[in-house]
Amino acid sequence: xxxxxxxxxxxxxxxxxxxxxxxxxxxxxxxxxxxxxxxxxxxxxxxxxxxxxxxxxxxxxxxxxxxxxxxxxxxxxxxxxxxxxxxxxxxxxxxxxxxxxxxxxxxxxxxxxxxxxxxxxxxxxxxxxxxxxxxxxxxxxxxxxxxxxxxxxxxxxxxxxxxxxxxxxxxxxxxxxxxxxxxxxxxxxxxxxxxxxxxxxxxxxxxxxxxxxxxxxxxxxxxxxxxxxxxxxxxxxxxxxxxxxxxxxxxxxxxxxxxxxxxxxxxxxxxxxxxxxxxxxxxxxxxxxxxxxxxxx
Length: 297
Known about the structure:
By secondary structure, the protein is of the alpha/beta class. It is built from 9 helices and 10 strands. The chain has a single domain, classed as 3-Layer(aba) Sandwich (Rossmann fold). 32% of the residues lie in helices and 14% in strands. It starts with 25 loop residues before the first helix and ends in a 15-residue tail after the last strand.
């Protein structure tokens, strides 16, 4: 005996569309999803209030990296960032594991570097060393710091190649990824919206394959530099910008509130990194920004 277990439709239902859920609003759901994937903009009254927030964020990234692969792989920029970072990380700990910097497990790379000696005033390494590394208490350990190869100060192309090989030794040999996956990139935002040594309108913004590339025509001196590329930045687990002071008001308004701001390097990072990106700013810097702000992690 053949039994048809398929539920049949009567003639009145044939050819009609399936019932619709009147509460389903696809455009609204897409908008909500996009909102949920937006960058995080944290705003504090001043640098003193900003430092503890930045500290918690960095140490959360540190703990996640150490738990995952036994070390904290972080890339840093220069500018005003090292001073703010030092204020956050060199503050006294409350003694808990969650509030303890384990610098001995840090691998510090430079998101960009100028092709100058390490003791030169333009060196990002010199800035980070003097503001942070030299002041780390001995009990917290010393980080492994990946500097440029000084043999190639007069050959920026080879210097970039050598730094990329250093990245490969740390990342690709262990993870076999298309791009290195930093636990955290700590970046700054220039008055023109540049980050690392990626400047508005520059051809390096179109790079899709390289990890570390040379730039010989930087709009800011010194002209010869090396920089991480946008694909590497976007591949990071977390990306943090630190921008403070009234001088950042105009560019942050452009990045967060205008269509044109999406094509500025920092805006491109926002678009590609989405909710992996967090901005840490004081009230002066975001005074003209209407984008939603947060005050806690």
